[in-house]
Amino acid sequence: MSSHRKYLLATLASSSFLLAFGLVEPLSGDNELYQSMASDLIRFHSWPYLGTWDQNFPGIVYIHWFSIILLGNSTLSFRVFDLIVHIAMSGMLFIVLRRWLSPRTACLAILFYNLFYISETLGTAGQRDGYANVLFLLATLLLFNSRYSTEGSRRWSVGKVMGAGLCAAGMMALRPTYVAVIPLVLLYLRIASGEWKWSLAFLSGVALLSLLLTMPYLSAPGGLDQAYQSVVLYNLEIYGKYQRHLPWIYHQLSLRKLFLISGSLGVLIAATPSIRKHRVVRAVLDQVSSPTAGEKLLIGGYGLLGVASLIAMGKYWPYQFEPVILVLAPFGVVFFEIVGRLIPWGSARWMALTVLLLYCLLRELPIGMFYSFAANRVEHSNVGATDSLLNMYASVASYVNHNTLPNDRYECASRQAGIRWRSERMSASRFTTFYALTTFAPNGTHPEFQQVWRREYIDSLRSARPRLLVISHEVVDSTDLFPESPAQSIHEIPGFDSEILSHYRPDTTIGGYTILKRID
User: Fold this and answer.
1) Residue pair 51/227 in contact by the 8 Å Cβ criterion
2) Environment class of residue 502 by beta-carbon count within 10 Å: exposed (0-12), middle (13-18) or buried (19+)?
3) Contact at 8 Å (CB) between 123 and 318?
4) Cβ contact 420:478 at 8 Å
5) Is the pLDDT of residue 511 over 70?
6) Which residues pair with residue 427 across a beta bridge?
């Protein structure tokens, strides 16, 4: 067996072990939202922005939709799906890195990236940027392979470049800042081939998927306007105006210092001729093949895009670092290899490397998450089981299912979507969470489009006549957007007290949720 194949198998096996830690993780608040939107799309044909609501582009909803179609609608099903995708990603990354790195270095770089992925637990698992990395690697493989097709298989070359275009459009559907991948690939194609037809093939793939994703909104009255209000106006006038302060940014950067500092030092070493001349550095870098100008542009440009996206969004959530870490991880491993060579041959080197490995594993593995979640892993329907957030979601959803008829509607006023996808009933409104209705602009007002949404919410409750109203008392505030719980802010929506509340009486309380029942 060749060295390449041995290390590929070792990469897949070790990646499977590391990534399997994610199987015990619950869904994050974001994952709950996307799972709910995907579930509503399957069960009730509720398209994003038309039948459900979120402030982000819809790409991640379709990923959850596919995972439900493939494996079923549960937390474990999505985690298994995410595991399979990221094991496949490890294989793709190995093939890409082998163009420049030795099999051992490529294997270690992938493990380094996967260590980052699992170390952030809910901060990165199943998030949009991780899937953007998957699509970028797939596009990169297609682009690299298309260059070496013979004239006799030219049709397949066009197909591969169009496939890269589909991947780029998918990345843009996950996050709008990834639109920068399109000019990045166009520049790569211009450098690598010098022929415009490849650029046209790439743009054809981008246009094809973009059209398919836009069609539901073109065919629905006011569909494009609703999508525009949700993902553009809401972010420009409300969410996007809230920026993190320097202490938060420093805190987030410091949590990732192992990956950011080692990777940045590796880049510095590789880019500085005077350092490269050092004997030890040269011994390591002599095993690294130099990328072409086009490859440097594509890979380096993606890393810079990740940095620019972080700064532009200004929130610095853990998953937003994923494109940056993807590019820095190989440089980080090269840096560690250079440090290892500075230690004299013999037991001292291996002891130092073993201590470093144990430090990385013990520092980054989510042992606490594994223990705490495994202790409360069973989700059951006992109404009194409110000892964990997941059991509370399941208990409320079970109560809704057992106290309504199949055609009854209900409404859940909550900032979390965990109840919505676990219940079997259709919601009365399209507002999957209360973010859309209760967040304030920085000046303390609700913009006009949001006031229209608030009137739409009351109209939906009035016309649907939901059997149950589930109202949350949660206070989840990480950006100063929501000073009050939904149980407080719902009374501030014009018309709720005067037109809706009089038709309901308190029925029960489950954990942090009050359930009201319609009396007429």
Assistant:
1) no
2) exposed
3) yes
4) no
5) yes
6) 410
Q: Which two tokens stand for residue 30?
A: 């974001």
Contact 386, 511 (CB under 8 A): yes
**C-alpha pair distances (Å), 453 with each of 431, 448, 459:** 9, 9, 10
DSSP for 342-373 reads HSPTTHHHHHHHHHHHHHHHHHHS-HHHHHHH
| Of 20, 51, 33, 31, residue with least CA distance to 464 | 51
Overall pTM surpassing 0.85 (yes/no): yes
| 192 Cβ contact partners less than 8 Å away, ≥ 6 residues apart | 143, 147, 292, 294
pLDDT over 60 at 429, yes or no: yes
Whether 130 and 86 have beta carbons less than 8 Å apart is answered as yes
User: 172 is written with which tokens?
Assistant: 């843009």
Rounded Cα distance between 357 and 320, Å, is 25
Amino acid at site 433: T
pLDDT at 10 over 50: yes
| Overall average pLDDT of the 129-150 stretch | 87
Rounded to 5 degrees, φ, ψ at 52 are -140, 170
Tokens representing residue 111 in the block: 């493990």
Tens digit of each residue's pLDDT (9 = 90 or more) over 323-376: 999 999 999 999 988 887 777 665 666 666 666 666 666 655 555 444 444 444
So what's the pLDDT on residue 290?
A: 86
DSSP assignment of 439-459 equals PPPTTS---HHHHHHHHHHHH
Radius of gyration of the chain (CA): 25
Q: What is the DSSP string of 389-417?
A: HHHHHHHHHHHHHHTS-TT-EEEEE-S--
Question: What CA–CA distances, in Å, run from 358 to 38, 106, 246, 268, 355?
Answer: 40, 20, 32, 26, 5
Mode of pairing for the β-strands spanning 409-413 and 426-427: parallel
- Report how far residue 418's alpha carbon sits from residue 153's, in angstroms, rounded to the nearest whole number: 49
| C-beta neighbour count of 91 within 10 angstroms | 17
CA nearest neighbour of 303 among 520, 129, 433, 488: 129
Strand order in the sheet with 504-510: 426-427, 409-413, 468-472, 513-518, 504-510
